[in-house]
Automatic annotation (TrEMBL):
InterPro entries: Efm4/METTL10, Methyltranfer_dom, SAM-dependent_MTases_sf. GO terms for molecular function: protein-lysine N-methyltransferase activity. The keyword S-adenosyl-L-methionine applies. This is Protein-lysine N-methyltransferase. Keywords: Cytoplasm, Methyltransferase, S-adenosyl-L-methionine, Transferase. It is an enzyme of class 2 (transferase).
């Protein structure tokens, strides 16, 4: 990365054990009550991204390959499928998350591919192929909170996202831990800013800020 940024303090949210335990509970809730579980950053954030994608109809076609990184319960892709997108893949390093997403998808009679994949593994990422749209809502944040080696993991993440994105593809990233300027700086070796998807703002102490940042990157031109 071109410039150094201060790492976030480690948290259990950055560990696989936390997510396995969380999705184990969500599987039980889904089986018992039909509750699909939490939508990361709430449904408004999810809907903003889906609306933005739908508006790019001249660039993103219904049959273009789209992948969701750290798909969790898979609801982002389920909503995209309802909008008519047909080539959808969700990956997560938590087998329990994939178990839950597959169950929900099957019950809704949709055709979405969900796979257990380690985003830190070059071979596993390469095997996925290339995508027109790579989407992440919260996974980069979780990686950034790893208690032991977040810097190295962030570097691997950025390299592997670059590897899976088509040359003319779009990388859509939503974060609650990093600002727009921090994200642009961290990704600058491989990506450049395409646009920022507007999110709700707040004003405090005379300054305006956002709870989350949704940003769209394209690959750097070589």
């Amino acid at each position: 990365m071109s410039d150094q940024i201060e790492e976030l303090e480690g948290s259990e949210l950055g560990t696989k054990d936390f997510w396995e335990a969380s999705y184990t509970r969500e599987i039980e809730n889904y089986r018992d009550h039909g509750d699909v579980g939490e939508v990361w950053f709430d449904e408004d954030s999810q809907n903003r991204i889906i609306t933005w994608i739908a508006r790019q109809e001249d660039e993103i076609k219904a049959n273009d390959p789209i992948i969701d990184l750290g798909c969790g319960n898979g609801m982002m892709l389920i909503e995209l499928a309802r909008e008519g997108y047909t080539d959808l893949t969700g990956i997560d390093y938590s087998p329990k998350a994939i178990e839950l997403s597959k169950a929900i998808c099957k019950d809704q009679d949709l055709n979405i591919s969900y796979k257990v994949t380690d985003l830190m593994s070059e071979s596993e990422v390469t095997a996925l192929g290339k995508f027109k749209v790579v989407h992440d809502k919260g996974t980069y944040d979780a990686i950034s909170l790893h208690p032991e080696n977040s810097k190295a993991m962030r570097t691997s993440y950025i390299t592997n996202v670059h590897r899976m994105l088509q040359d003319d593809g779009l990388f859509i990233l939503t974060s609650c831990n990093w600002t727009e300027s921090e994200l642009v700086k961290s990704f600058s070796d491989f990506f450049q800013l395409r646009t920022v998807i507007p999110t709700p703002t707040f004003k405090f102490g005379g300054k305006v800020g956002s709870v989350v940042t949704s940003i769209v990157f394209v690959k750097n031109r070589t």
